Structures are given as C-alpha cells and as structure tokens.
C-alpha cells in the first residue's frame, strides 16, 4: 500500500480508540456507575466526544482521503480493502466535518444526563420529568441535521437515518412498512379471531433470577458467544457494546415471572455480540472492521432470537437444560409446551417483550412519531397522547401508563433518532438469511435439536461477519441471499410457523 494510505489508516485507528474508550465508559454508566458519578461521567463523555471529533475531522485526514482517492490502484475496485475503506471514510468525514465541535460535545453531555433522567422518569412512570430532556434532544438532533445538510430529497430525519442506514430514506421505508403493516395486521387478526391460542403458563412461572442468569449464560455459550472475549451483565434496557472483537459487552434483564423474556433478550444481544466478535481483527478500528449498517447488525440479533430461539428444534435441545436448572416448577412442561409458549401472539405494550408477529408494529409506531417530531408536526408535549392513540390503532390496546408507553425505550434519551426502523430492516434481512442458510445447511434444524449451533454461526461468519463494511447493506443482502431486501421471506416464516401453532 501507498504511504498516504498507511498514514490514513494509522490516523483512523487512533481516532477509533477514542470512540471505543467512550463506548466502555457508556457501558459502565448503564451497568455499574454510582448515581453520584452521573454528572462527572457526562463531562468525561463530552470531552472524549470532542477529542474524537477533532481527530476524525482533522484537515490531515481530509487531505489523505483526497490523495488516496486520486490513486487508481486504491479505488478501482469498490470492494477491495482500500476501495471499501475509502468509500466509508469519505462518507463519514464529509458528515463529521460539518458538525461544530461544540455541538458534538453538547450532544454527548446531554445524552449522558438524559439517559439518567430517563431511567428515573421511567421508574416513576412520569413523562413530564423526562420531557425537558427530550425537548432538548430533539432540538439538538434538528441542529445536527441542519449542520450536515440535506442532499436531494432528504429531510431532517433522513439525515439522522443516514448515520445508521446509509442511503435509506423515510419515503422508501414507508413503501415497505405500509404493506407490511397491512399483512401483519391481517395475520394477527386471523390468529386471534380464528385460531386456538397455545397455553402460556410456562411464560408465567416464577423462577429465581439467579438461576435464570445461569441458564441464559449457558445458552449464550452454547450458541457461540465467547466469554473469553466478552461478558454478560444486567441493565435496565439490554444492549451490546464494546471496543474490539476481543472485548464485547452485552447486557440482559430479568423478571421473576418471564424467563422467556430473559432468554430472548440474551440471545438477541448475543447475536449482536457474535457479529462483533466475528469482525476481522486485522481491520479493527477501520470501516472493514465495522458493521455496514444497523439493519445488518439487527439481522444477526433477530435471527438468533427468533429463527433459532423460537424454533421447535431449539426447544427440543433446551428442554432438558430448563428441567435441570429449574427443577420442580417446570417439571410438567414438555418441549412442545415450551416451544408453543415461546410463540404466543398477544398485542401488548412493551416492544422488547413483543412476539414476532406484533413486533414490527411497535417499530412502525416509533418511526411515525419520530418523523412527526423532526418535521415539527407534533410537539414533545404531545408524545404520550400520540403514542397512546397509535397503540390503540395499531395494536388495539389501551396504554395504562408512561412506563409501558412512551418511556419504555432508552433510544430517544441517547439521541438515536432514525434507529428504530433498523429493527424491522433487520427482521426482513434475518428471514432472508435464514431461508438461505436452510437451503445450504439442509439438516440445520436437526443440528439445533442436538445443540449444534456452530454450523449456522460459521455460515453467518462467511455470509456477513467477515465482510465488515466491504459491501453496502443492499449489496450484502443480494450477495448473501440472492435477492434484494423484501418482506416475503419474513411473512413466509411467520405464517409457516404461527398458523400451525394456532391450529390454522
């Protein structure tokens, strides 16, 4: 490689160290930080954000990108190491250089303080306590979008989405979400009106949290999360963080009377974690060592949570483990009972506890509210009422309080506007990936029933993990599955599983 390209990568890796250090401090804030340290942690994160931004936007990095782009050997192939790195570095640099350092620091500080305020407001189910912080965050996100600027038909929300799902637009998502919502509503209505719901007593058994923790850790290890290169802790809202493929942090949460939620949360975050652990270590700190989009990242978590963790074959393997861990309270449940309980469809309030059929309706509600906030069509003060109305329309339920309504997610306190749709994009991609894996690994379900998850994990490594950001999300989807992203595979999966579960 040329000297300018080597210098560029060295500079990028140095700047990435700042971001990964901030990531560990953010993880600590959600898992171990004493309340008395919140204000100081906000200042620490703001300073790291300011230093990182200064490094990422240094004129020298801009000059090096331009010099390298002028070398045909480095850019002639968009999917070569250098071609992919330069494509992503140019996109990131052009966005970051437009943001004032003071705004970057202010956003980081506000994120830290707002997260703490959200935690307290959620515990009290009091939106008014969180409202000033959400108002400030919406204002900061509008400022961020305005500084970056709009290209073509972009609006403010699109600019924020670009940071998670490059190239996507709200109008494109609406073209997917509208028919998806119609098909899901039709399926849910048919199941609930004409089907026979499976018993869900297993989901309500009161089981010791300490034993639940042992159980989900064993499952995470079995599916391939490497505890020598990662750790599992508890948090109010489960997440995956870390600094390197050798240091990946995931969190989960527990309820005494819902072990299936703890299992799903852990498998979800382990899916994220295995993606991070599967990134090419030699490219750590560069775009080739990072996910190409959040939708792709979510495909990995949703695939392990749903296509594996809610499968009959998984519960055939897991049944003896549940029996040995929990003993008498679960002795009367068969593997089939557990499988069917894990696939109950019930419109409910909490997104992270939602079944597969209703989950994407939760995402669409958040997408519509974010658009309205960023467009100025609704005020922050209107959020609880709008939220409750949309849940009434989409899921037919009456939201009882703010904690089970608009305060349930941490994302807005973190400034993650544009993030929520990546969950549904991840569901779509996961379904296509899993269909492809079933075709190429014809005994896949038999492997699950024997507790053999390595073949799937290695297949995903070849199809997704090892590529980092070499391909765009659209390119990766077509390369891995043979077709562009769509909703058909997800609907085949849901209908093919849920109709028999409901006797239809």
Number of strands: 3
Mean pLDDT: 96
Radius of gyration: 22 Å
The top-level CATH class of the largest domain is Mainly Alpha
Helix-strand category: mainly alpha
| Amount of beta strand | under 5%
Instruction: Compute the separation of the termini in Å.
Output: 61 Å
CATH fold annotation of the largest domain: Neurolysin, domain 3
Helix content: 55-70%
User: What's the multimeric state?
Assistant: single chain
**Basic shape:** globular
Return the domain count: 2
For the biggest sheet, the summary is: 3 strands, mixed
**Low-confidence runs of at least 5 consecutive residues:** none
Task: Set out the fold topology.
Layout lengths: L2 H29 L6 H19 L2 H11 L2 H4 L5 H16 L4 H24 L2 H22 L7 H7 L7 H25 L6 H4 L4 H15 L6 E5 L5 E5 L2 E6 L6 H19 L16 H15 L3 H15 L8 H7 L14 H20 L7 H13 L25 H20 L3 H6 L4 H10 L9 H9 L6 H14 L3
Parallel strand pairs: 1-3
Antiparallel strand pairs: 2-3
Helix pairs in contact: 1-2, 1-3, 2-6, 3-5, 6-7, 7-8, 9-16, 9-22, 11-12, 11-14, 12-13, 13-18, 14-15, 16-17, 16-18, 18-22
Task: List descriptors.
504 residues, Neurolysin, domain 3, 2 domains, three-stranded mixed beta sheet, 3 strands, 64% helix
Describe this structure in words.
There is one protein chain. By secondary structure, the protein is mainly alpha-helical. The chain has two domains: 3-149, no CATH class; 170-501, Orthogonal Bundle (Neurolysin, domain 3), CATH 1.10.1370. The chain is 64% helix and 3% strand. The chain has 22 helices and three strands. The chain has helices spanning 3-31, 38-56, 59-69, 72-75, 81-96, 101-124, 127-148, 156-162, 170-194, 201-204, 209-223, 259-277, 294-308, 312-326, 335-341, 356-375, 383-395, 421-440, 444-449, 454-463, 473-481, 488-501, and strands at residues 230-234, 240-244, 247-252. The chain has a three-stranded mixed β-sheet with strand order 1-3-2, with helices on both faces. A hairpin with a 2-residue loop joins β2 (240-244) and β3 (247-252). α7 (127-148) crosses α8 (156-162) and α11 (209-223) packs across α14. It is globular and about 65 Å long. The model has no long low-confidence stretch (mean pLDDT 96).
């Amino acid at each position: 490689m040329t000297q300018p390209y080597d210098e560029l990568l060295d500079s990028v890796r140095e700047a990435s160290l700042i971001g990964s250090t901030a990531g560990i401090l953010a993880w600590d804030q959600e898992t171990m930080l004493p309340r008395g340290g919140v204000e100081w942690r906000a200042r620490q994160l703001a300073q790291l954000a300011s230093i990182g931004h200064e490094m990422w936007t240094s004129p020298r990095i801009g000059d090096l990108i331009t010099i390298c782009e002028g070398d045909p050997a480095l850019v002639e192939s968009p999917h070569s190491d250098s071609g992919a790195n330069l494509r992503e570095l140019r996109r990131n640099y052009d966005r970051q250089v437009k943001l004032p350092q003071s705004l970057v620091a202010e956003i980081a500080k506000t994120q830290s303080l707002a997260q703490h305020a959200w935690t307290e407001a959620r515990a009290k189910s009091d939106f008014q306590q969180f409202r000033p912080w959400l108002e400030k965050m919406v204002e900061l996100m509008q400022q961020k979008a305005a500084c970056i600027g709009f290209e073509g038909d972009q609006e403010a929300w699109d600019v924020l989405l670009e940071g998670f799902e490059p190239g996507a637009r709200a109008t494109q998502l609406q073209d997917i979400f509208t028919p998806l919502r119609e098909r899901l509503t039709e399926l849910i209505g048919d199941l609930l009106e004409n089907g026979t719901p499976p018993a869900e007593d297993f989901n309500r058994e009161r089981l010791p949290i300490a034993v639940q923790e042992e159980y989900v850790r064993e499952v995470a290890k079995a599916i391939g999360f490497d505890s020598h290169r990662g750790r599992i802790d508890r948090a109010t809202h489960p997440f995956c963080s870390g600094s390197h493929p050798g240091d990946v942090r995931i969190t989960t949460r527990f309820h005494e009377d819902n072990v299936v939620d703890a299992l799903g949360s852990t498998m979800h975050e382990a899916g994220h974690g295995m993606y991070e652990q599967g990134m090419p270590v030699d490219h750590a700190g560069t775009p080739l060592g990072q996910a190409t989009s959040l939708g792709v990242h979510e495909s990995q978590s949703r695939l392990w949570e749903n296509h594996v963790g809610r499968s009959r074959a998984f519960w055939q393997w897991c049944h003896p483990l549940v029996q040995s861990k929990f003993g008498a309270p679960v002795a009367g449940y068969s593997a089939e009972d557990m499988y069917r309980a894990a696939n109950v469809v019930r419109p409910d309030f909490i997104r992270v506890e939602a079944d597969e059929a209703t989950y994407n309706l939760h995402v669409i509600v958040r997408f519509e509210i974010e658009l309205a906030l960023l467009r100025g069509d609704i005020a922050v003060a209107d959020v609880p009422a709008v939220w409750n109305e949309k849940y009434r329309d989409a899921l037919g339920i009456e939201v009882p309080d703010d904690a089970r309504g608009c305060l349930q997610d941490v994302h807005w306190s973190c400034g993650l506007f544009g993030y929520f749709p990546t969950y549904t994009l991840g569901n779509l991609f996961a379904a296509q990936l899993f269909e492809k894996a079933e075709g190429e690994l014809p005994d896949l379900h038999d492997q699950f029933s024997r507790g053999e998850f390595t073949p799937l994990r290695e297949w995903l490594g070849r199809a997704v993990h090892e590529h980092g950001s070499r391909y765009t999300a659209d390119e990766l989807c077509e390369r891995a599955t043979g077709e562009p992203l769509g909703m058909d595979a997800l609907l085949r999966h849901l209908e093919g599983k849920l109709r028999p579960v409901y006797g239809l």
